[in-house]
Structures are given as structure tokens and as C-alpha cells.
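FW: tagging you since you asked about this chain on Friday. Here's the raw sequence from the shared folder, copied in full. Didn't touch anything.
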Amino acid sequence: MWFEDEARVGNKGRVCHRWWLRGERAPGRCDRGYQSAYIFSAVRPATGADFTLVLPRVNAGLMDLFLARFAASLPEDVHAVLGLDGAGWHDPRALHVPDPLTLVPLPPYSPELNPVERVWLYLRERFLSVRVLADTEAIIDACCRAWNALVAEPGRLRSLCAYPWIIKVSS
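HL: got it, structure written out here
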């Protein structure tokens, strides 16, 4: 059982928690530009395994690319069930789903069921907030550095994603 989600990362800034003087506004950076990139990630909560791509846009064609590369990364004798939200580019009629994958849509308006949402919160809190990056390429590099720092911490991805009900269902 795997879970997939995408996160937009850009220069718009994000509200995050910072210690600061009472009554004063903490400094934060924000750019009014519209440059961004998307982190596509599939995580297996039971083991902490992951497959991630950082892409400049999000659409059905790039979701196809993600699914094809994800399926190619799986061993030949493995079939993966991939839980995902109801984003417009997840419509199975618009996608070419590879044979070793089965897409399972999660109920609408229930991000708490997708453990990858907690990963985005962690990345934004620790690595991707309060910074302005020069261009889309710099945003992609920052996303890659943040993801690599996350997976370099042993057990961090599993601790973020291993909800008790998922472990129960997966075992």
C-alpha cells in the first residue's frame, strides 16, 4: 500500500511558526512572482520507502510520467496499490495506468487520510519556508535538497507517514 500526493512550492511564502517578540511582526520573505515547482511523491508508510520526482508543472501528462517511472522502479513481481486524492489530473480516464499499479481514490475533502500531507508540512516548516528563490530552477533545486535531507534522516519518513490504521491494513 502506497500513498501519492503533489505539493506546490514557490516564492509566495507560507505562514509558519517562528519565535519572535510579542506585539511585533516576525520578518518573512515573499516574492510576488508566480514561479513554482511541484514535488510528486509516493510513500509506502509501512516501510518508509519512497519514490519522488520534482517537476516544473502539474497535469495529466506529467502524472503519467510519474506513474510510469514509479511502476518501473518496482520489482517485477510486485503490485502496488496507490491511494491518492481526487485532483483533476488523477482521473483514470486521462491516465495510462501501468499494469503493476492500482489507483485507489481517497474520499473527497479528507486530506487527513493521506499521510503524505504530513510530509509537506514537515518540509515546509523545516526547509522551504521564509525564503525567496531566483527562478524555477532554484526552486527545483531547493525541493530536491529538502527531500534529500528528509530521507537522509533514518526513519523520519516512516515516522511521519505510519498511521496506525495504515500499518494495520498493510500487514
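FW: The radius of gyration is 17 Å.
HL: agreed, and The chain has a mean pLDDT of 89.
FW: great, closing this out.
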